[in-house]
């Protein structure tokens, strides 16, 4: 008939987390009760696609050992907003008309003006992320001509990278 807030207490029982909610005492025979529960559970990043709750109704007065029990599986949907920021230093670059690429040279200045591209991948939350793959396609050839000479690739923050096959091909 009416709505009441339940008083629930968390505790550990046999190595599992238990939430104990008292529904009321005494309860009339044949009473029907509907309980809506909202649970906030953290640390589910590596739990997979679902989490299963074991719900059980126990009566202190019941002599029957077979108290009603049900398993409820709830899908886990992680949410995290990723943001990619990029910058080139210098932002613009013009090659002098007198400059020519020197094929086979091992001097850095014979391969062009240094341009550094910096990319930052940010997790704006609310969840944490793992196993993220970022693929950057860098145009290094224009037809048969070198457009950008890829010198090096560096990372910060414990990331793993696979290097481009054209990375520092002339060993400058």
From TrEMBL:
Name assigned to this protein: ITA2B protein
Domain Integrin alpha third immunoglobulin-like, chain residue ranges per copy: 83-171
InterPro entries named in the record: Integrin_alpha_Ig-like_2, Integrin_alpha_Ig-like_3, Integrin_dom_sf
Chief localisation class: membrane
Pfam families: Integrin_A_Ig_2, Integrin_A_Ig_3
GO molecular function terms attached to this record: integrin binding
UniProt topology in membrane: Single-pass type I membrane protein
Keyword entries, A-Z: Glycoprotein, Integrin, Membrane
UniProt-annotated location(s): Membrane
Cellular compartments per GO CC: external side of plasma membrane; integrin complex
A single GO BP: cell adhesion mediated by integrin
The keyword Magnesium appears for this protein: no
Domain annotation Integrin alpha second immunoglobulin-like: ranges: 3-76
Organism, as annotated: Peucedramus taeniatus
Record flagged with keyword Endoplasmic reticulum: no
Top-level division of the source organism's lineage: Eukaryota
């Amino acid at each position: 008939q009416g709505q009441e807030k339940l008083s629930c207490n968390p505790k550990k029982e046999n190595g599992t987390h238990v939430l104990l909610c008292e529904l009321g005492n005494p309860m009339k025979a044949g009473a029907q009760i509907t309980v809506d529960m909202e649970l906030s559970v953290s640390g589910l990043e590596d739990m997979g696609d679902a989490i299963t709750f074991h719900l059980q109704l126990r009566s202190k007065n019941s002599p029957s050992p077979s108290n009603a029990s049900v398993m409820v599986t709830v899908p886990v949907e992680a949410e995290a907003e990723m943001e990619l920021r990029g910058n080139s230093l210098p932002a613009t670059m013009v090659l002098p008309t007198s400059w020519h690429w020197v094929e086979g040279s091992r001097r850095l200045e014979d391969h062009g003006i240094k341009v550094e591209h910096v990319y930052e991948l940010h997790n704006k939350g609310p969840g944490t992320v793992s196993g993220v793959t970022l693929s950057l396609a860098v145009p290094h050839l224009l037809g048969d001509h070198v457009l950008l000479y890829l010198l090096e690739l560096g990372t910060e923050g414990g990331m793993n990278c696979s290097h481009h096959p054209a990375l520092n091909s002339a060993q400058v």
